[in-house]
Amino acid sequence: MMPTGTKRAVMNFHGVKCPYNYVKTKLALEEMELGQIVEVIVDEGEPARHVPKSITADGQTLLEIFKDEAGLVHLVIQKTKEY
Length: 83
Description:
Helix 1 (20-31) runs parallel beside helix 2 (46-57). This protein has a single domain (8-78), classed as Translation Initiation Factor IF3, CATH 3.30.110. By secondary structure, it is an alpha+beta fold. The two termini are 23 Å apart. The protein contains two helices and four strands, in the order βαβαββ. 29% of the residues lie in helices and 29% in strands. It has a four-stranded mixed β-sheet with strand order 1-2-4-3, with helices on one face. Strand 3 (61-67) and strand 4 (73-78) form a beta hairpin. The radius of gyration is 12 Å and the shape is globular.
């Protein structure tokens, strides 16, 4: 569960094709400090399947995943490992 009051960046990669949405997510995480949180928005289907797998394989923590009313998938990721 995400700590209450934790600020997080939001990055909207709706319409960005694989693997570019993962690459952009990884680049954002590289710039963040350990413990920081980012919410990444991706399309359903391939991006929603592959980005979480790749990010967790990198050692980062997927705190939450949910779909909004527009059908976009939101991935809440905490940086828990340096690249």
